[in-house]
Amino acid sequence: MRLSKAFLRTYKEAPKEAEVISHQLMIRASIIRQLTRGIYSYLPIGYRVLRKIENIVREEMDRSGAQEVHMPVLQPATLWKESGRWSIFGPELMRLKDRNEREFALGPTHEEVITDIVRNSIDSYKNLPFNLYQIQTKFRDEMRPRFGLMRCREFLMKDAYSFHLTEESLDEEYLNMKKTYERILERCGLLFRAVEADSGAIGGDSSHEFMVLADSGEDAILYSNSSEYAANIEKATSIINVEESNEEKKEKELVFTPNSKSIEEVANFLNIPKEKTVKAVLLKEVLENKISYFIVLIRGDLEVNNTKVKNILGAYFDLEMMDEEEITKLGLVKGYVGSFEKKEGVTVILDETVKYMRNFVVGGNKEEHHYINVNLEDLYYDVVGDIREAREGETSPDGKGVLKIARGIEVGHIFKLGDKYSKVLNASVLDQNGKDKIIKMGCYGIGVSRIMSAAIEQNHDEFGIVWPKNIAPYIANIIITNMKDQDQVNVAEKIYNILNENGIEVVLDDRNERAGFKFKDSDLLGFPLKIVIGKGSLDGVVELKERKSGESIEIKEESVLEYIQNFMKN
Question: In the CATH hierarchy, which top-level class contains the domain 14-236+404-457?
Fold first, then answer.
């Protein structure tokens, strides 16, 4: 491609609404353009990168044995209502009606559609197992689209669905997909970790997220410094010292604690460590026709993991904090909440660490009062479980090493769905004994457009993008430093033609601009190699500079092809 004819305009500055570096650089480099909030067009440079990532994904999925299909974006509400997700998926589901007032959704995912295809296509165990995938545009009505392609309303995704007669077969394919995703991300030149994760709205018994490591990542992951253990902070567990106290139990006593609403204030006022307190976190789940209320009790020095609470309760939606009006209506006193008797309409969840405490402090349900010397038998609770947030420095749950924290960008997620969708949608086959058996399913998603953003977040410097070479829009950029020098032009044209003839993706910067301007654009756009045609061209010598390392050499023009071919192999 000749840059003199390219649809390309670069910018020194990014718009203020571009908060993260990938969004800023994609705007500045004419990779994407916003149409409206959370919806983007891919411009030529960006679309080349997108297609390269898509091709890597397709090649590895085909290699894994999966078969490509293509399903409709527009999905009937009847199918979603049959699965039960129409009412519980939430406001992110883009809903619409046709001219006949029939309801539809723009697909954020395709579990229902693929299950409908399979249930109407196969009826025997002999047809299993298999894995079907597609690379398709998805839609999600994000409340707050942000971070460019990382959290948008329309995005490109590969989703795959496997079908099995047995759990053992599902386990085998799950491992196959895990290895496939690892190969995809390795070929994209990314540093990543596969971590245990919460299954979220998709559901299922087990899942792993694939996190591209980046300081700007939205997600926190905890990993062992001495083992393979790694998990999203929503899923992570750890080992802490929770040996039962041998203190002699005392009678609980209500005491005056003025201006002491927070755990820090209570601990300071009573001159006790936070570990001797129990705090109450007040949560709710808001459904279309019902609000459920929860009191969560946990040791004062620990934090509640809302996802764990959601899972232990079997809640559909993310939990929210109660407001002051709701707290008062339930007969609770904000900042002084305890749980000593059952309250109608309130479920109490107790973190398992509280079981081992003695003579602790908890709110007295009275303004400026707490109970001291409280013990487990004094409390009312409905559910006990691990609902605490694991922390850096704690022992890994496998007992090997301590937990470290890192930030990551989720680009892929795989799930063991089991019979979550096949059962409710009645997808079954006859087994070897002629008995009807519900199919087991797996689900495997990877964000093609999100990988592009994640790659930039992980690979950039103060000058611009540093593309991994397998997904770079072009491998090399030939820069003519002086368009008035015919010798430079001739050498550049010769190298450009040779590289094109040998299948090397190359751009020729033949614009009538200053050399400095061209160098800045090349760095911004992130091409892995610069071929600088300067004064040495008279002797057939050019400068070749690697974008990532900054290393440069001078070589004869006839050696350029061999150099680049070796560069691409290594």
Answer: alpha beta
